[in-house]
Automatic annotation (TrEMBL):
This is Uncharacterized protein. GO terms for molecular function: RNA polymerase I core binding; RNA polymerase I general transcription initiation factor activity. One of its GO terms (cellular component) is nucleus. Belongs to the RRN3 family. InterPro entries: ARM-type_fold (IPR016024), RNA_pol_I_trans_ini_fac_RRN3 (IPR007991). GO terms for biological process: transcription initiation at RNA polymerase I promoter. It holds the Pfam family RRN3.
């Protein structure tokens, strides 16, 4: 490639020179201004400011209309800086670094992005100087340009897959080079994670790219944080969807009716439809965002092999126990657990049923957790068609044994003024729900 850096201090009239000479020029310029500005040679300062100007991408708005000469010059500068990384000084090159760390790679042409990310990778490897800034830059680019801070610009849609893959590969390379990087990255993701009120496009894009990091060694290091942040966001959205927002025709149905009839949906093998939230709710913004997020997560689960899926499941059980089980009447977020169990009926489905049963039976658990656990057991057994009959019978048997023990204990102890048998009655009711769900499922299968 011919780079249009110039021999006579990069003036417009000079003949272009080759990359290797251009690299030398950039290195000399960087070295010449590594001092207080009033001490630096004015000629060197002029050259430095031209390099800073070449790296300024703040006015770019359409990567497909990039001037070829300007693109070649920009790429040459990137390569030169990458080759002269040791001469970049955080104390004297503020404007240069600012123009690097504020780049939106969405405005860069596709064939320029790898060169820019190579520079970022090399900067991140400089001992303790630029790692945080490099990781911040990459995480900030999880979100494409938004119109009015809400809708993704149209031209970004077709580039999303490519840019996400480049960002994830760069982050994985940095984590392989710098052992500290995953720890720093966890903190940055925690701070940058979208909140309840961010736009749907911003939230979906961020989570979609973030899940691309859930692979290999990087996944092992940050998976728990990624999943915890996602479940926390889902739970926030869930609890902000009120039953008053449910469509009128659904108003008189209970939660188990909804789970069985509406959320069973059209999913081919697991009975957990992706449009479940939208079935129940109208134009509720939180519901739409929640539904689309769950689709992204379900697609992620589908992409995992059996070993990785079980790792995710193990982490999600802990998160479910801490963040979902005791939440007041969540409506949909629990279906990420049901869905991952549907992907592995033989292992995950059984483990989750036993997990809930153990919480319910554990006398040391708080009453709210035990009540929630038995409610989830009823929902889970009654509507999850992927659970084997043997598993259902085994779990119901455990609940029946608990009921018998409870009756035996109550019959021998002294009476209390106001006995609290709430857990007992809830467990009895679960048997009815489960039986109803099984009958409903068999009727549906016969109709099909």
């Amino acid at each position: 490639m011919v780079a249009k850096l110039r021999r006579d201090d990069m003036s417009e009239e000079a003949n272009p020179i080759c990359d290797s000479v251009a690299f030398g020029i950039v290195g000399q310029v960087l070295q010449s201004v590594r001092m207080e500005p009033h001490l630096a040679d004015s000629h060197a300062l002029e050259q430095y400011h031209r390099i800073v100007g070449i790296l300024d991408t703040s006015k770019r708005r359409n990567p497909d209309k990039e001037n070829p000469d300007k693109k070649a010059l920009y790429v040459t500068c990137l390569k030169a800086l990458a080759s002269e990384i040791s001469k970049i000084d955080i104390n004297y090159h503020h404007s240069l670094l600012k123009n690097i760390f504020t780049v939106s790679i969405w405005y860069l042409p596709n064939d320029t992005i790898p060169e820019f990310l190579e520079l970022i990778t090399r900067l991140a490897a400089v001992a303790d100087d630029y790692l945080t800034e490099c990781l911040h830059l990459l995480v900030n680019n999880f979100v494409p340009p938004l119109v009015d801070r809400t809708k993704m610009v149209k031209w970004a849609v077709s580039r999303k897959t490519y840019i996400f893959s480049q960002l994830c590969m760069c982050l994985i390379r940095i984590s392989n080079i710098i052992p500290l990087a995953p720890k720093v990255l966890r903190g940055i993701i925690d701070k940058c994670m979208p909140n309840l009120f961010d736009s749907k496009d911003k939230t979906i894009s961020f989570v979609e790219c973030m899940l691309g990091l859930d692979t290999g060694r990087m996944g092992d290091l940050i998976r728990a944080v990624l999943l915890d942040k996602i479940v926390h966001l889902l739970t926030e959205l869930d609890v902000n969807i009120t039953w008053e927002g449910i469509l009128q025709e659904q108003h008189n149905k209970g939660i188990f009716d909804m789970e069985l009839q509406d959320l069973d949906g059209n999913e081919e093998e697991d009975g957990l439809g992706h449009g479940g939230v939208k079935v129940l709710l109208g134009a509720n913004a939180h519901a739409e965002k929640l539904d689309d997020l769950m689709v992204v997560i379900f697609e992620h689960f589908k992409s995992l092999d059996a070993q990785c899926l079980h790792k995710e499941f193990t982490i999600l059980k802990t998160i479910f126990r801490a963040s979902v089980l005791t939440v007041d009447t969540p409506k949909f977020v629990q279906f990420i657990m049901f869905y991952i169990c549907a992907r592995d009926p033989e292992i995950c489905a059984l483990e989750f049923a036993l997990f809930l049963t153990d919480i319910f039976k554990n006398k040391e658990e708080d009453p709210i957790s035990r009540m929630s656990a038995v409610s989830y057991i009823g929902s889970y057994l009654s509507r999850a068609r992927f659970i084997s009959d043997d598993t259902v019978v085994a779990i119901i048997g455990k609940l029946v044994d608990w009921l018998v023990d409870y009756c035996d204990h109550e019959s021998t102890r002294e009476s209390t003024p106001i006995p609290n048998h709430q857990l007992f009655y809830a467990t009895c009711q679960i048997h009815q729900f489960t039986f109803r769900g099984l009958v409903h499922g068999h009727d549906r299968e016969r109709r099909q």
